Amino acid sequence: MEMKQENSFLKNTIWLTIGTILNKGLQFLAVLFFSRWLSTEEYGRFDLLYTYISLLIPLITLSTQEAVFRFSVNEGNEDIKCKNVSSAFLFDMVNYFVYLCIAFFIVGRINVILYLAFSFYLIAELWSVYLRGFLRAIKRLDIYAFALVLQTMFMLCSVTAFVYKLHMGLIGILLGYAVGTFIGDFILVIWGKWIKYFDVREISKKQIEKLISYSAPLVPNEVSWWVMTASDRQIINIFCGDAANGIFAITHKIPALCSVIFNMFAISWQQEIVTKVENNEDADVVGIFNKMLITLLSICWCLLAGSFVFYFYFFDIKYFEAILYSPILIASAAAMAISQFYGGIQAAYKRTKSTGVTTIVGAVLNIVVHLALIDEIGLYAAAVSTLVANIVIIILRMISIRDVFKIKMKKEASFNLLIFLYFFITAYFNRNMYFNWINFFVAILIAVFINYSLIKTMLFTLLQK
Predict the structure, then answer these.
(1) Where are the transmembrane segments (predicted)?
(2) Is the pLDDT assigned to residue 1 strictly greater than 50?
(3) Is 215:67 a contact under the CB 8 Å cutoff?
(4) Beta strands in 243-368 (DSSP E)
(5) Cβ 145 vs Cβ 128: under 8 Å
């Protein structure tokens, strides 16, 4: 039984990781073109609007997709799953139409076209987030992963049509992302057989209240994560302008590869630890943590050593300054992954308030440090404040779960941390191309050697599948 659950955890992580790597790899390549088709000001505005969407989604949905997952993933009664899925859908849609009315009177009358394009993209993303929670609830992470790739491919085609062919600029990229996301949503509905779980008759006020009672405390957590990742853009926009925002948006692209991959691990880990807790089974938390940390640091040092390739050969020269801030944000992405690991344990024990409080503290600290340093060190302030905030969240969450688990770093993980620090430092010695390429290949060789057993297991699992 234990071996079967471990294989399930590994399989989920592998499928999510592969799907995410392909998805974000395509998106990353797309940015190389989008950043050339748009000015730094236009790209900076789009990035700012995207951050507004990431803020509005938890406010509109109250993170009900997390409640659908938590109350359905181990539920054997199909009727209860149906109640959760149907009730959450109605709640989300009603709140979205409330947003449409409020937003129209605030900004819609000023720029109707931008309002419509933004709202179109918002509903596509909102629907996508809801469906991901649904797929996690029915344990179909394979569909989740594959649909991500198809969604991105359609998005690339639609953005190319609207921006490159029709020269629609900011409106075009919003519409392109919306169309691609909607097509991906449709695929999720069909393959996930969502209609089987949706029944208007099962919608219940009592069930909505139950879902919200669990998910509402997560909203401050989601908003605080937004503050940490998006308030930097707001502050940069105020103090430095749209062009600086465009540069910082590009800076985030390489660390975002880390974050998204680690998010997939966090999703798989949360599903695993929730199942263990619900079934009153022991979980090898310390072992999984150290394995995760070793793999996490290996991916990060490869990106630290290889990021020069993108800045020297792919990104437009006008974004080259971004190379200075990327190493700090990669380190921050690693810290965020560790905090999400602890967050998964908090979710398993339904400590959503603790999750929210720790993130709020980090968000406030992020703003304070950023504002304190931006006049002195410019865009470095945004990167440093994010790293400091994530480290503080780790410490707070570590303290909050010590009554359940005491997690320690093993020698192997400590050794990997030293290797990571070496590549972090050498990332700033990027002018000598011979050194860059040698350092990059060394980073890959070390990562493969250290993770050889994991790589072999992943390949075996895929071939067996």
Answers:
(1) 12-37, 49-73, 85-106, 112-131, 143-164, 170-191, 293-313, 319-342, 354-373, 379-401, 413-429, 435-455
(2) no
(3) yes
(4) none
(5) no
